[in-house]
């Protein structure tokens, strides 16, 4: 019997923490993607030598973003998780962005920023404003260069705190 897809998990736990499913662990060049029709994670792309994901990257299950995929989330953790790991996270905020897709269509594609519930290194964080602005600039640069590899553009257009991130998830879970 095939494994049920991660999107059966609600986006929020009863205590208000969000659920995140890790697709690509921090420090990895390989980008993985959940394929619901297969019930598996597949290799989506590989970054060039020397480039790696700076933090765990995944999605919020049970959501649909404007691009048709689940809402993206970058999870700050003390150590990398593994592909398919469900992590309970506190939403810190959102990096709003515009990007072009493979058909050169411009669309909104925000990136949530969250911290793992039990993080020892960053567990005190409650908002994106608590992060070093230079780190946020580097995260935005990573996404811009990651998308440029495929000939797409990614432009960060602003940042908002945890309330905006939660609203985004709730709207995406209603789709």
Structural commentary:
With 175 residues, the chain is of the alpha+beta class. It has 2 helices and 9 strands; from the N terminus they run E-E-E-E-E-E-E-E-H-E-H. It has a 5-stranded mixed barrel. The chain has a two-stranded antiparallel ribbon with strand order 2-3. It is globular.
| Terminal CA distance | 28 Å
Report the average pLDDT across residues. 90
Main beta sheet, described? 5 strands, mixed, barrel
| Rg computed from alpha carbons, rounded to a whole number of angstroms | 15 Å
Topology order in helix (H) and strand (E) letters = EEEEEEEEHEH
- The residue fraction in helices comes out at 10-25%
Structural class: alpha+beta
| Order of neighbouring strands in the sheet with most strands | 1-4-5-8-6
Shape: globular
Query: Are there runs of 5+ residues with pLDDT below 50, and where?
Result: none
> How many distinct beta strands?
9
Strand content: 35-45%
Number of helices: 2
């Amino acid at each position: 019997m095939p494994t049920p897809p991660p999107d059966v998990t609600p986006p929020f736990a009863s205590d208000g923490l969000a659920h995140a499913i890790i697709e690509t662990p921090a420090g990895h060049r390989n980008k993985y993607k959940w394929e619901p029709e297969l019930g598996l994670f597949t290799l989506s792309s590989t970054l060039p030598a020397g480039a790696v994901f700076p933090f765990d990257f995944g999605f919020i299950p049970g959501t649909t973003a404007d691009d048709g995929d689940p809402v993206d989330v970058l999870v700050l953790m003390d150590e990398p998780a593994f592909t398919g790991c469900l992590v309970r996270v506190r939403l810190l905020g959102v990096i709003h962005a515009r990007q072009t897709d493979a058909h050169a269509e411009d669309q909104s594609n925000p990136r949530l920023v969250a911290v793992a519930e039990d993080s020892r290194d960053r567990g005190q964080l409650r908002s994106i404003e608590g992060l070093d602005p230079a780190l946020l600039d580097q995260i935005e640069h990573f996404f811009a260069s990651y998308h440029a590899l495929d000939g797409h553009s990614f432009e960060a257009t602003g940042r908002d705190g945890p309330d905006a991130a939660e609203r985004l998830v709730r709207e995406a879970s209603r789709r």
